[in-house]
Amino acid sequence: MDGWPRLNEDSAMSMKYERIAVKPVTTRIGAEIEGVDLSKPVDDRTHREIHEALKAHCVIFFRDQKLDHEIHKTFGRRFGELHVHPAIPGPEGHPEILPIHTDETSTYIAGERWHSDVSCEEEPPLGSILYLHTVPDYGGDTLFSNMYAAYDALSDRMKDYLDGLTARHDGEMQYRGRYKDRVADDSAMVYPWADHPVVRTHPETDRKCLYVNPIFTTRINDIPRLESDALLKMLHEHCAMPDFQVRFRWQPHSVAFWDNRCVQHIAVWDYFPNVRSGFRVTIKGDRPL
Ligand code: SIN
């Protein structure tokens, strides 16, 4: 759609990449990063370039990386403190590692509807770094959608209406009883919930983005239920428009690093009964404004 904003151009143009090559996948979201080996310590300049590429493209992809848990966590920590998932335990000794695994015994996959990771928390994650070592020969892509573009594409009347509204994000409906294979009894667990602005301003780019998603957002506050349901339905449909998206085709040992503040994603389960397996680290964020 002509006239819609594309990349975060200020960010994309202010950085001259010297250590990495940045190859956009679409004009709106997603770039492949080349020239870096994440298994080695990332120097400050390379780190800054990766950070700028993330800001400019919202989700960045790396190929042919070999990450163990320590290396994965060390890379994640360059961007902030690591998050521990409120519902899913990590492997022994690595609470900050989130296993992402599907095989012929699976009854669900992580992230099969559009969402921003753990948006039910008061301070939802800044970003997530997913490393898959095993992928099916076909299928198993992840789609990412640019929430700046989704906001920008709304009419001015709708932007005015949404201005100042908050929405409830609740972990209960997503997490309660879901992870029986990993947590035998979650009856004593209290899952997080939080109210966040429907439109948030990204703390680094100062740009506005839509911040409601079908996995966690249960209602828009302070308006009638009927209006809230209709509005959420429209916003969820709007956010899922292909115009805002990039689709990532995984290979073994690929990494995707997305900014949860301005991106939603969805994993496609079109490879059953094949195996897709890896690990995610998630970086803590701050309160949406
Ligand atoms: C997730 O982090 O929501 C899972 C994404 C994926 O498996 O592609």
Q: Measure the end-to-end span.
A: 28 Å
Strand content: 25-35%
Q: Could you name the CATH class?
A: Alpha Beta
Q: Mean pLDDT, nearest integer? A: 92
- Residue ranges: pLDDT <50 for 5 or more in a row? none
Please count the beta strands (DSSP E, at least 2 residues each).
Answer: 15
The percent of residues in helical segments reads: 10-25%
CATH topology: Double-stranded beta-helix
Radius of gyration: 18 Å
Helix-strand pattern: HEEHEHEEEHHEHEEEEHEEEE
Reported for the largest beta sheet, the result is: 7 strands, mixed
Commentary on this structure:
It is a single chain. The mean pLDDT is 92. The chain is globular. It has a seven-stranded mixed beta sheet with strand order 1-2-3-13-5-15-4, covered by helices on one side. Strands 12-6-14 form a three-stranded antiparallel beta sheet. Strands 8-7-11 form a three-stranded antiparallel beta sheet. It has helices at 9-14, 44-57, 69-77, 147-152, 156-162, 172-175, 225-239; strands at residues 21-24, 31-34, 59-62, 97-102, 127-134, 142-146, 166-170, 193-197, 199-201, 208-210, 217-220, 245-248, 254-259, 263-267, 276-283. It has one domain (9-283): Clavaminate synthase-like (Double-stranded beta-helix, 4-Layer Sandwich), CATH 3.60.130.10. With 289 residues, it is of the alpha+beta class. The chain starts with 8 loop residues before the first helix and ends in a 6-residue tail after the last strand. The structure holds succinic acid. Succinic acid (SIN) binds at residues 100, 110-111, 117, 128, 130, 142, 265, 267, 280.
